[in-house]
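Risk register update: the risk of archive-format incompatibility is retired. Evidence:
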Amino acid sequence: LIGALGGTGNVTFTNAVAEGVDVCRISNQLGNLNGLEGFLGLVLSAQGGTTRIANYAGQFDIAKGVATLPQQRINADCATIDFAGNVDLPRWLVDIQARALFPEHPKFPGVIVEEKGQLDRPNTRLVNSNQVQEYIIGKSAGSILRKLVPGIEPAPAPTTQDNSASQPAQAPEPAEQLRGLFNELLKNR
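Archived output:
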């Protein structure tokens, strides 16, 4: 019976609330990545809370019991969530990927979450953890360095001279300084 389902469907939310995550709290914490405390605050901010969704009108197609969700967007407070995937009802499987972007933080790569597996207990994983880590390291490395090694300041940029004009060389990024510090600490063990 389920394998014979077919057609199209629409889903509409008006003044809905999503439980389990507060995207505004995450967005606020992205603006406060000031070292280890900021990173831990970001991790904690992703747990619990609610997110308000003013309205959403989505659609899906279903053939032979498999619902296909084309790329869609939910506009929530402080974030947009794009998602797509499918739900295979006869085999009781789900495969959906969602990406949350935070307009107040345009350089943040967003959070891409994938849900795969059994419909009633899918495996959930963060797909772009490396990109998120790179962003966090880049944003908070300078303050972490200053806390780990009091008195450390970014190295002044050396100057190079040529016949036309002198231009400062590029100073290392805080993330590079932090990696260098970790490498030095590991060498001295």
